[in-house]
C-alpha cells in the first residue's frame, strides 16, 4: 500500500522536478518530506505532505523542518539538531 502512495511522488521526483530549478524553501524538500511522512505515518503522511506544500510559498522563511514523530500539519517548531534561541 505504501508503494502505491509513494509512486506518484517518485514519478514527480524523477521526471517532472528535473525540468524546473530548485525552489523549495524547506529542508528536506517538500517531496522528500512527503515520502518520509508517508513512511512514518502511513496515509496521514499524505495530509502532512499537502500541508507542507501549502506552507511552501515566497512569504515563508523556510529552513530545516523534519517530519515530526507525531501527526500534525503545522511546522515542526523545535526540530532536533536546531539551536534553540531564548
Automatic annotation (TrEMBL):
TM annotation in the entry: none
GO cellular component terms listed in the entry, alphabetical order: plasma membrane
Domain of life: Bacteria
Keyword Kinase set for record: no
InterPro entries linked to this entry: Membr_insert_effic_factor_YidD
Pfam families: YidD
Cell membrane recorded as keyword: yes
Subcellular location: Cell membrane
UniProt topology in membrane: Peripheral membrane protein
SMART domains documented for this protein: Haemolytic
Keywords: Cell membrane, Membrane
Protein family (similarity comment): Belongs to the UPF0161 family.
Function: Could be involved in insertion of integral membrane proteins into the membrane.
Listed HAMAP family: UPF0161_YidD
Protein name per UniProt: Putative membrane protein insertion efficiency factor
Organism (species): Dellaglioa algida
